[in-house]
Design a protein that fits this description.
Helix content: 40-55%
CATH class of the largest domain: Alpha Beta
Number of strands: 4
Number of domains: 2
Shape: globular
Strand content: 5-15%
Number of helices: 8
Strand order of the largest sheet: 1-2-3-4
CATH architecture of the largest domain: 3-Layer(aba) Sandwich
Order of helices and strands: HHHEHEHEHEHH
């Protein structure tokens, strides 16, 4: 884990050094009608024009933090039904989730991601919420399968929760009954894209 963090931080710093030494600091970007759509987003800037060197530096700090978080996701093993079999398939050598920095942990206090894989009953809902509250910030949730998304086949059963998002906030929904390991892999990649767009330090500075 420490080696992975060091490599990610070093890679991000070297990338930023090459970028900032090539021109002015902060770089002057085309604005208004002259600015092509998407060019600012590719450079990692959350604003159309850098307002100050401080905001530019905070944006780069956000980039480093997001890089470390998205490349070292530690999910909790929370398999409730048949979707958990595909979750195990995702962890097997064929798809090798370790190459994305995804490592299963058994304790919620050591995780930052939870796969809700299977049917959530009314009795399981308080336990799910308690486990979610025990996870440290920042944390994310992937709802895996039709049952976790909205009740699925048991939607009209009196004992089944109509979606785990009634108990905990969900970031990514993976459809299917059950979804394949490829679908779960795609969901993890979408979550990594979402983490990459975070701008917590910059938003804190702008308050």
């Amino acid at each position: 884990m420490v080696t992975m963090l060091f490599k990610n931080i070093t890679r991000a710093l070297l990338k930023n050094i090459r970028f900032t030494t090539s021109g002015a600091y902060p770089p002057k970007l085309p604005v208004g009608k002259d600015a092509p759509k998407g060019s600012i987003a590719k450079m990692g800037s959350p604003f159309l024009e850098p307002m100050s060197s401080g905001e530019y530096a905070l944006a780069r700090i956000d980039d480093v933090i997001n890089l470390v978080q998205r490349d070292s996701l530690w999910p909790l093993t929370f398999g409730l039904a048949c979707c958990a079999v595909e979750m195990m398939h995702f962890a097997a050598p064929r798809y090798d989730m370790d190459r994305y920095g995804v490592v299963f942990r058994a304790s919620p206090r050591q995780t930052d991601l939870i796969f809700v894989a299977g049917t959530v009953t009314n009795k399981m809902a308080p336990a799910l919420r308690r486990i979610f509250d025990q996870m440290p910030e920042a944390k994310w949730v992937i709802s895996m399968g039709s049952c976790a998304n909205g009740g699925g086949y048991y939607h009209y059963a009196y004992s089944v929760l109509k979606g785990c998002d009634r108990v905990i906030p969900v970031d990514i929904y993976v459809p299917g009954c059950p979804p394949t390991a490829e679908a779960l892999l795609y969901g993890v990649l979408q979550l990594q894209k979402k983490i990459k767009r975070k701008r917590e330090a910059l938003l804190w500075y702008r308050r």
